[in-house]
Amino acid sequence: MLTQPDKLPLLKSSKVLLVGSGGVGCEVLKNLAFSGFLDITLIDLDTIELSNLNRQFLFRNKHIGMPKATVAANSILQMNPNISVTPIVDNIKNPKLSINWFSSFQIVINALDNLDARRHVNLMCQAANIPLIETGTAGYSGQTTVILRNLTECFECQPKPLEQKTFPVCTIRNTPSSLIHCVVWAKNYLFSKMFTRDTSKISDLDTDKDPDVEANLSKESEVLKNILYSIQEKDFPKNLFDYIFGTHISILLELKDMWIIEFDKDDIDALEFVSSTANIRAFIFGIKPDSIFQIKAMAGNIIPSVATTNAIIAGIAVTQAIKVLLGNISDCKTVYYAYGGNRPQLLYKESLLHPNPNCPICQAQYLSISSNYSKSTLQDLIKQISDCKSYFPTDFEYSLLENDRILYDPDFDDNLPSTLESLGITSGSILTLLPEDESTNPTILIAIQEKNQTEKSAITIEKCGSESTLYGANQVPKKRKLEPKENGYSQEPNTGSKNAGKALKKSGTDSLPSTTEIIDLESTESDKVLIE
Ligand SMILES: Nc1ncnc2c1ncn2[C@@H]1O[C@H](COP(=O)(O)OP(=O)(O)OP(=O)(O)O)[C@@H](O)[C@H]1O
Ligand SMILES: [Zn+2]
């Protein structure tokens, strides 16, 4: 894999942080351990489950219930005892894992399964000015990309698609036409009515605040409750069945709404209930029933994780990490893998894109504020900002926020006497300084770090992260490529899937971006680099 042996020392001295030790993470760890990396830190908050074993090959049956990070580290050390692997069993969002801590690595690789953690790592890497390799897989699709501060798009440069799928209310209630409609009915309506004591949960359901719908819901609940009261009686099962699959079906034909309430796909009783009732309903409506396994996938919104997809994406991710560390930035690409679509190739690549000038994360300046937050007041912080001319322009007018909460603005100073701690601002909090005049001043994100508790209330402000030491940073192309390579495909409308490193949910080959190049396995030299 390594084509520049003279640069091997660069890898040996690089500290790499791997976030997530699941399907992709185990593969990445194995690749790192055999590519010349000597110092790997691995973090995962979870423990090993039986269902992980088919693809997370560092884990065995005897490890079930044990922390993934520790077991993965031990397993890989048995394969290569000459490296150092430090496992951390924790949430990557733990405030103790500060920007300074992120700064101690030369590169970070994400092998995560959720948007929230990905967003956090993206922010920390932007603040710490550390390169991030993003990965994502879903079934037979996957992608990986490289995120470099000030050079490429970050994870937030393009909006993320909504993850939740919803169904038209009347289809679920009145006219189910496929098994998924019956599964949604069984899981979200019937299950909750039967087994959820807290009827207030019904307020979570999307009734469009229609009084008729809500009246119907409460009438149904009442009837069902009365039947449930007769649970000791001989006719209870028959009455219940008749109501749900007889009387209730006719009532349903007159109703017009649907619900969404959680159920646990891993609770076997819950799953069997939902599966049986969905299949009975499907039968009544002339829809083909299916197995409990398939219904579990539908009810749990499960997209199967495929070992080969994980291995391919992990391989490319580590290749990209090596390129970044060796300074071959111009060779780094966003790479998509898609199997089973209507295109013949499996791998497609796209040039890294420049940052979106309106992105609130990568366009922000990052400062860190050290403070003894149990003694420092908001007033102290505001004063320090106005005194600190090196980072803030003179007469800088701004609002200070924590997420959506306004802490201070020129017309709101109620919080000034409060200590930072009493305002809930402690180590790891990220504050946003939103300038009044956004056209001339950038947003500033400030990370709060803890100062020695014995020190006075003084606050110090510093720039976050180290200066970039990236080799080859000037190699990133200035513009997005506009024409597709000669590959036989016409330019397609941009579907948004070019989003660097986004949480990949469903990306068939049809959703490939217009600027995609096809990686032909027998094509050019530079293409081969990606898959060696
Ligand atoms: N905030 C976080 N901090 C640390 N690790 C995280 C965080 N969020 C997710 N992870 C870890 O990222 C890994 C993602 O791997 P993967 O997608 O294979 O998940 P999984 O839970 O093992 O598999 P599946 O969801 O398919 O059952 C998991 O091991 C998960 O524990
Ligand atoms: Zn961005």
From TrEMBL:
Subunit structure: Heterodimer.
Active site annotation, chain numbering: C170 (glycyl thioester intermediate)
Family classification: Belongs to the ubiquitin-activating E1 family.
SUPFAM superfamilies: Activating enzymes of the ubiquitin-like proteins
Record key words, sorted: ATP-binding, Metal-binding, Nucleotide-binding, Ubl conjugation pathway, Zinc
PROSITE patterns xrefs: PROKAR_LIPOPROTEIN, UBIQUITIN_ACTIVAT_2
Pathway membership: Protein modification; protein sumoylation
Domain THIF-type NAD/FAD binding fold: 10-360
Pfam families membership: ThiF (PF00899), UAE_UbL (PF14732)
The protein, known as: Ubiquitin-activating enzyme E1-like
GO biological process, any: protein sumoylation
Organism: Smittium megazygosporum
Biased composition (Polar residues): 488-498
Region listing for Disordered, in residue ranges: 472-532
InterPro entries referenced in this protein's UniProt entry, alphabetically: ThiF/MoeB/HesA, ThiF_NAD_FAD-bd, UAE_UbL_dom, Ub_act_enz_dom_a_sf, Uba2, Ubiquitin-activating_enz, UBQ-activ_enz_E1_Cys_AS
Residues of the Ubiquitin/SUMO-activating enzyme ubiquitin-like domain: 372-453
Domain of life the protein comes from: Eukaryota
Residues the record lists as binding ATP: 20-25, 44, 52-55, 68, 113-118
Positions bound to Zn(2+): C154, C157, C359, C362
Cellular component annotations (GO), alphabetically ordered: cytoplasm; SUMO activating enzyme complex
